[in-house]
Amino acid sequence: MMMSGGWRMVPMDMNMPMLPGLEGAVPVVGPFMPGTMIDPATLPEARPSLVVPLSNMDTLDISVSMVRRTIAGHEMIMFGYNGQYPGPLIQAPQNATIIVRVKNEIEMPTTIHWHGIRIDNRFDGVPGLTQEAIGRDETFTYEVRVPDAGMYWYHPHVREDVQQDLGLYGNLLVTSPDPNYYGPAHREEIFVLDDILIDDQGALPWGEESPTHALMGRFGNVMMVNGKTDHQMEVRQGEVVRFHLTNVANSRTFNVTFGNAAMKVVASDVSRFEREQLVTSIVIAPAERYVVDVRFDKPGEVAIANTIQAINHFRGEFYPHVDTLSLVTVSDQNADSEVSMAFETLREHSDVVREVRPLREHFGREPDHELVTTVRVQNLHQSIVLSMESDTLYAAPMEWNDAMPMMNWLSTADEVTWILEDVTTGAQNDEIDWSFQVGDIVKMRIHNKPDSFHPMNHPIHIHGQRFLVASIDGVENQNLVWKDTAILPVGSTMDVLVEMSNPGEWMMHCHIAEHLHAGMMFSFTVNDQAP
User: CA-CA to 13 of 20 to 30 Å: which in 351, 380, 409, 474?
Assistant: First the structure.
């Protein structure tokens, strides 16, 4: 339904009633759509991602441009890296340095942030902190050294609520010199998980001056794997497939299941786990990555799905909800049995055990810094305020779905401020001023307040360093892995140990794109020598 100011009504679940007083209401910011007045037919059709293997000091040119894509039957103008969705899958050997020349051809300034890479600070891609944003028709050259094996990704750090949602993301696979780094598998698959918000006319507009959906983040209603809504694959009986999962969604945390197929988790953001572990699903928050091995034992069809317990705030009830992400056809042809049998072995990775052992002595000590997360609102529509302050809304530890789409859509970053607050000083967001030395092991305790205006889970991302999640709610982590992003549920307290190994001025923020642009960020300094 077309509304005032060029807005269209956000898609609504018919089980969620319209709040009184919100009829005809629209966000206080204007709508943005890319390529206004441009005929989509004049733009190149986006192509699937290509693999780009690079060696030390090789150069890759990346253009940031408008493309034409068709999603769920709708032809839309979107953005792309080198005209691809996702952007090129860059492969580089561990400890290599690659050169990436970026030219911006879209109407907005942009950058590239090399997410999870312990990179030279000059090339971290944060406008106003490490570089100036790349204007239209301008270029910037990144030197990306990759010290850690694993799966990383790249995306803008300018209005990523818009640019990332419109397709600006890609993976960077850093390969270990050890050919057996992850153990035996028949093959590997890259799964980039995303969603997009679409109505019967196509993508719903984004906020022009600042983001909409500032309360919960912009949840999509169409799921995608590698930019496709109908992803399918074929495997043989007994085949072990290694999945590299990356969540590039603005706000959605996925709970990925593989039917009845056996599944073990091998690695996450910046390393392998201490020990491989059998699991039944993978909870993956925005910006996180996981490596999982899955063995498909029985012929037939297996749905790889996002399997959640959704919530309806207005009815006060939970209900199961399943979205198929990919459909796997398992043939009756047998895969190589040696690899199938090797799946049974849960390997321990001695190098990870050895690296994290010295940090365990810090688990029991008091934190160096404490943060709490909360939210402040101003000038929100009175109907939203009254509804949120009622005793009927349940604060779920995880928001798996948009349980209040109208209120969420109307809440902009002009009215909502998400907060990281230093418990000791009371400083909030960019007022926080922390300084460390290279070699420091910093213990941070982060508490997600459950009694704020709208408590929400937060994927906390730390730039330029790696950290361990030592404990959640006082329960010590028994299987450690190096991380750069970790999800903090509502009401929970998370202790992290950050290894300050990389000098520079770095960001720490929530990776829900709308929360980031609603203030939930600050920077800290790591000095490489005593001041």
Answer: 380
| CA pair distance 246, 284, nearest whole angstrom | 8
Nearest to 203 by CA among 88, 72, 313: 72
Q: What is the dihedral of CA 151, 309, 85, 481, to 10 degrees?
A: -10
Considering only CA atoms, which of 406, 426, 421, 149 is closest in space to residue 291? Answer: 149
Asked if 143 contacts 120 with a C-beta cutoff of 8 angstroms, the reply is: yes
Q: How far apart are CA 346 and CA 184, in angstroms?
A: 11
376, 453 Cβ separation under 8 angstroms = yes
The pLDDT of residue 506 is above 90: yes
Q: Which residue has the tokens 């290599």?
A: 96
**Nearest-angstrom CA–CA distance, 46 and 257:** 29
CB–CB of 249/220 below 8 Å? yes
- Give residue for tokens 């109407």: 107
**Cα torsion angle, 47, 48, 51, 56, sign:** positive
Helices (H), 236-310: none
pLDDT digits (tens, 9 = 90+) for 520-529: 999 999 999 7
344-390 pLDDT, tens per residue? 999 999 999 999 999 999 999 999 999 999 999 999 988 888 877 76
Burial class (CB in 10 A: 0-12, 13-18, 19+), 158: buried
- The C-alpha atoms of residue 29 and residue 127 are separated, in whole angstroms, by 23
Q: What is the pLDDT of residue 317?
A: 79
Token couple for 368: 């160096």
Neighbouring residues of 357: CB distance < 8 A, sequence distance ≥ 6? none
Question: Nearest-CA neighbor of 511 among 288, 299, 215?
Answer: 288
Under DSSP, is residue 352 helix (H, G, I), strand (E, B) or coil? helix
Q: Where are the alpha helices (DSSP H) in 55-159?
A: none
Closest CA to 454 of 524, 498, 399: 399
Residue 137: how many CB atoms within 10 A of its CB?
A: 8
Which residues lie across from 488 on neighbouring strands?
A: 458
The secondary structure of 168-211 as a DSSP string is: --EEEEEEPS-TTSS---SEEEEEEEEEE-EETTEEPPEESSS-
State if pTM tops 0.70: yes
Report H helices in 349-404: 350-356, 382-388
Spell out the domains of the chain, with CATH numbers in brackets.
33-175 (2.60.40.420), 187-348 (2.60.40.420), 357-527 (2.60.40.420)
DSSP 427-456: -BGGG--EEEETT-EEEEEEEE-TTSSS--
| Cα 152 to Cα 164: distance, rounded to the nearest angstrom | 15
* Of 367, 305, 388, 353, residue with least CA distance to 481: 353
